[in-house]
Amino acid sequence: MIFGIKDNVLTMYGTIWEYDGQDFVYYLSRLESQYSEITIRLHTYGGSVFAGNLMCNALERSSADITIIIDGLAASMGAIFILSSKKVKIVNNGYVMIHAPHSGSYGNAQDHESNAKLLRLMEENFVDKLMLRTGKTEAEVKTWISKDTWLSAKEALALGLVSEILPASVETVYPAFDPEDVGETEVYNMYASLLTSIPTAAVSAFNNYENPNKNFNDNMKQLLITALALTGLDANSSDSAVLAAVQEKITGAEKKATDAEAKLKTVEENRIDSLIEAAASGAKKEFTPEEKSTYKTIGATSGVEALEMVLKNVAKPIAPGIGAMIQTGTPGASVTGRESWTFDQWQKEDPKGLEALASADKEKFNTLFNAKYKK
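RE: above sequence
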């Protein structure tokens, strides 16, 4: 997720990745130290439930007066996030999408059962929050989350999910459509393109030029010739010659912009590859093709800065956590690469990991302890 701060406004656009919870707490705390009233502008199709819950908890314990404005879409975990504020506004062409949490797991039957249990616990939390906000029954709420339930701004207001509808800050160029037919990702991309598009002055001028047959006067011709540095023309040149030269100028500028974008994309791709290689080297491991693909997607969609933030934690030792247990179902799964560590090395390199190991893999801990103290 890309965060931005200007005055007392925190902008949050994109996917909620695993480490975005910590970043959100940092940015919110920074604003809380300066302002009593804070506005959060949101556009997301969801992401990590764990990171989202951390963000929700930070909002709910905040003493600031917080208003959330949905600039386009609040879907999945984004729809749960908005429940943490009493003041939620949405643009009149915005949407909210609710569904049950999704996940993937691999391993034996117990691994899948463990992951299913976690999903049910998450689902219960979603149901409780939605019941509390809307006053609807458990049966009604479970009907919503049994599938992708799309809500227009008016429907979200009627259910109490939002408190106010605002005029859209951009004029949509899309016709009316059914978001269930289009799909979650496409709805997000449509709004993202509107929110980030900035037309150039030249393009706007020609978009507003309605009558190509209307004659220029000499002053208008000379202004165009001078402003665009058109060669071989003067105020006595024909209208068609001036228009042709202007069009050629624009085409050339567009080509330069396209070439520059292509070069920039290549530079960014190379930088992403370098970051991934450096992270793998620092972690002393070889990333799988799936991991590399995931990291490249983060860099391409959320930006190189977001990827740097994700990768900076890759090489850091981490204590056994719920994520590791869900994926492998194996106690002490996160000690891979440390099988040869002694008790002293654990205490020196990762004391918190050693403490966690005592509860996550007692047999491994006892072996290290006995080897150290010869019991």
